[in-house]
Amino acid sequence: MGGLNIKEIVVDENLITSRSPYGLPAFCKEIIKFFERRRAR
């Protein structure tokens, strides 16, 4: 795909999103890490 970088999930500050339902496991892991970092503040 000519240098196109397709990621399973995207994290941009407070926005966490996945491209499709197949990315749900990775999304769940990332959202847990996000809330753990927020709680540690």
3D structure, described in words:
With 41 residues, this protein is an alpha+beta fold. The protein has one domain (9-40). It is 41% helix and 20% strand. The protein has one helix spanning 24-40, and strands spanning 9-12, 15-18. A two-stranded antiparallel sheet has the order 1-2. The chain is elongated. It starts with 8 loop residues before the first strand and ends with a helix. The model has no long low-confidence stretch (mean pLDDT 87).
Helix-strand layout with pairing:
Elements: E1 9-12, E2 15-18, H1 24-40
Antiparallel strand pairs: 1-2
Can you give me a brief rundown of this structure?
The chain is of the alpha+beta class and 41 residues long. Helices cover 41% and strands 20% of the residues. The chain has one domain (9-40).
Q: What order do the helices and strands follow?
A: EEH
What percent of residues are in strands?
A: 15-25%
Helicity, in percent? 40-55%
Main beta sheet, described?
Answer: 2 strands, antiparallel
Number of helices: 1
Instruction: Report the count of strand segments.
Output: 2
- Span between termini: 40 Å
What is the count of structural domains? 1
Task: List the uncertain runs.
Answer: none
Shape: elongated
Q: Overall pLDDT, averaged? A: 87
Which sequence of strands runs across the widest sheet? 1-2
Alpha-carbon Rg, integer: 12 Å
What class would the helix/strand composition place it in?
Answer: alpha+beta
